[in-house]
Amino acid sequence: MASKTFDLDMIKEVYAKLDSRVKAARKQVGKPLTLAEKILYTHLWDGEATEAFTRGKSYVDFAPDRVAMQDATAQMALLQFMQAGKKKVAVPSTAHADHLILAKQGAAADLQESINKNNEVFNFLSSVCNKYGIGFWKPGAGIIHQVVLENYAFPGGMMIGTDSHTVNAGGLGMVAIGVGGADAVDVMAGMAWELKFPKLIGVKLTGEMNGWTSAKDVILKVAGILTVKGGTGAIVEYFGDGAKSLSCTGKGTICNMGAEIGATTSTFGYDESMRRYLKATGRADVVELADEVADHLTGDPEVYANPEQYFDQVIEIDLSTLSPHLNGPFTPDLATPIAEMKEKAEKNGWPTKVEWGLIGSCTNSSYEDLSRAASIAQQAVDKGLITKAEFGINPGSEQVRFTAERDGLLKSFNDLNATIFTNACGPCIGQWDRKGADEEKVNTIVHSFNRNFKKRADGNPNTNAFVTSPEMVAALAIAGDLGFNPITDTLTNKDGEQVKLDPPVGMELPEKGFDVEDNGYQAPAEDGSGIEVTVNPDSDRLQLLSPFKAWDGNNITGAKLLIKAYGKCTTDHISMAGPWLRYRGHLDNISNNLLIGATNAFNMESNKVVNQLSGEINDVPGAARAYKAAGVPTVVVGDHNYGEGSSREHAAMEPRHLGVRAVIVKSFARIHETNLKKQGMLGLTFANEADYDLIKEDDTFNFIDLKDFAPDTQLTLEVVHNDGSKDLIKLNHTYNAQQIAWFKAGSALNLIAAEAKGK
Description:
Elements: H1 8-29, H2 35-41, E1 59-62, E2 66-70, H3 71-81, E3 93-96, H4 107-132, E4 135-137, H5 144-151, E5 158-161, E6 175-178, H6 181-188, E7 193-196, E8 199-206, H7 215-226, E9 234-239, H8 241-244, H9 248-256, E10 265-268, H10 272-280, H11 284-292, H12 301-305, E11 313-318, E12 325-327, E13 335-337, H13 338-348, E14 354-359, H14 367-382, E15 390-393, H15 398-406, H16 409-414, E16 419-420, E17 443-447, E18 463-467, H17 470-479, E19 491-492, E20 498-499, E21 521-522, E22 559-564, H18 571-574, H19 587-590, E23 609-610, E24 617-618, H20 620-629, E25 634-638, H21 650-657, E26 660-665, H22 670-678, E27 682-686, E28 700-703, E29 715-720, E30 726-732, H23 737-745, H24 748-758
Parallel strand pairs: 2-3, 2-5, 3-4, 5-6, 8-9, 8-11, 9-10, 14-15, 14-17, 15-16, 17-18, 22-25, 25-26, 26-27
Antiparallel strand pairs: 1-7, 4-21, 12-13, 19-20, 22-28, 23-24, 27-30, 28-29, 29-30
Helix pairs in contact: 1-11, 3-4, 3-6, 7-9, 10-11, 14-17, 23-24
């Protein structure tokens, strides 16, 4: 395959600096370096390291190599970039149309329907990309993270993306981090990108997988160990002989789902599997360059020999004894080995009849994934089995789909009456028009996705979704039974015979090489200065942004409680996806979903709060609009890991737009806390978690020392109860001087725009 490497000069530039920058970092740190440290220290905004940073404490400015955006988040990111006063992006950037395609009938019909419904948005993205020098991957081209792995990811690089699963590129040895759109705007505008220097978790993999076990089971096991917040603030680095035995796309799967443990990102050292993948995807020139600096593209040998001395936490997993897992329902860290599922399902009352099996998503839609699942599907055909569940497939890219069709993989699925959906996210992000979902029946589905929060796939709160590997999805869909263990159990075929499925057989890479007729890429204009980007003022899909107001310098007083959220409150609860995706480019319209999925701690219902101005029960957005109209500031109170999940900054922009001034919680998920800061909001945590219980529905809140807002200094909240009594609550924050400047200016973007005007 001929070379098709994008941005080769940029990659050469990164590698040319590696040696001197790694040596400077090693001198400052005074000991051998992990891979994560090498990539971080070689991407410092100020060049070579002049100090050693403190993990989990130091705020550091970085210079990422590239930016990637998916269509649902790109709209708001690019609307913000248009305000930044720049003529062209400062680093290679791409936007990918993959989220706005509803899965219903099948690829051809669904793609055309999406283009018909979303043409205004796609045209907007296309024109903005064309104007500002951004590559655009059109609808049907594929899922952003698979497309990035095939075309842009490279060992030792650093990228950010406006999607939490940007971390997928760690499978090709990158430090790739999910961010909000405002962070992407910083980098595209040629500014430094700030991150708290991460802690480091090492995962040593020994042995080699066999039988039904797959790379997916590694991260399902890790999720069970670390839970959904155990990786928060940390980079997970995988190493060991077991790591080298995994394919590149298998590594991508593991890194991808690291978002579900809250990890900043995950990564693997450069090895032979990455060489094979780069060559297979037409980037042999990157291999030549990487081989020259290969020692700098993995952790130092001393680190991997004695990991306890170099990582903050070390986990060891023997791939030889690892068994297939199912994680769920309703949370991606509830891990169950397949052999224990039958008993566990009965104990917990989980429905064991599997209604749907879904293969795809950015986590598991590679050629290898499809080939392993197809081998199970073909067995079912050959052995006379009748599939009990419905089956859906989302290939990861047009290149994967075209090649899989050429090689007969899709025929194996079609022979089982599977529906081949578009090369897009589809059901994984709630873009699934599932027949009967509105009846909200209790049911079970299995999928190879990454998240399984309540309502996520089909909008039905009673759908029990279990995460597993593509090959296990195939087996369980064929059996129609959640408790079926293909390692030990048999199935009855149409002739009444007992048959056993053989372990899956897959191909890491296609024997005949990848092929594609039209990969769906649109290169930007060389000179976009004459291109006009228009937004219809009457559009209900797109809305030009107005800057948020700067802080007036006074303490915030007389604030009311919008909602006190109980328990898990993810970005899906704060700003739902699914049908709401159509409004991702229109801040006012999408704000009508603000916190409608959160559980109100005072009535244990969602989207019902007391409007303290009228005494009436309102929906959350309605109450927020009433307070805003009356000039009354509001606060939101939440529980642990608030804002877990997607990187969507709408979950921070919506409360900002509707007058929420502060979000006060027990703890934050990393991306959401940053997004709040970027939008000029107060993201605060209870110094004493028990103070969450002091907050009453009809309280009034006064921030009595906000005028003294400073780094490393607590804020004091005066909580005035309805009976006149008061509580003084201490609040912690992680704002540094720069972030406090964002708050004072009204948002980080306001500062960028002011700087651009001043030049």
